[in-house]
Each structure stands twice: as C-alpha cells, then as structure tokens.
Design goal:
about 70 residues, alpha+beta, Signal recognition particle alu RNA binding heterodimer, srp9/1, 4-stranded mixed beta sheet, 1 helix, 4 strands, about 20% helix
C-alpha cells in the first residue's frame, strides 16, 4: 500500500491573503477552495489553510478534574 503524503493544517487570520502568499511565493495553485478551507498540493506535502475560527474544534479541552 502506498503511503499518503503528510498533511499540514495552517490556521490563518485572512484566507485571501494566505492564498495569495502561497501562490505568489511557492507558485502552487489551490487544489480545492471554499470560504472555509483551501488545499494546496505540493509534491511531497499537502497544506490545508483553515480560518482561525475553526481551530477550536480540533483543540478541545477535556474536563478530567486533574490539576498540575
């Protein structure tokens, strides 16, 4: 079975500016675009751009009752 390329999720404040930066600096075109997600396909890695407002759903805190 062929291994998949790594995926990096970059949370951005301004999606349009981030897309312009990646396309201008690295010369890649978006493989997928929506207002809430952009996928940039580099040869060895996939970079996904997501708005900062979506970062909280991946980094949820659990209530364990433990203290440090």
């Amino acid at each position: 079975m062929k291994a998949r390329n790594p995926i990096v999720i970059h949370y951005v404040h301004d999606m349009e500016r981030a897309k312009l930066f990646y396309t201008a600096v690295f010369g890649v075109s978006p493989a997928f675009e929506s207002p809430d997600w952009t996928t940039l396909d580099f040869d060895a890695v996939q970079v996904d751009l997501a708005p900062e407002k979506r970062s909280s759903w991946l980094m949820m805190e659990s209530e364990t009752g433990a203290t440090r």
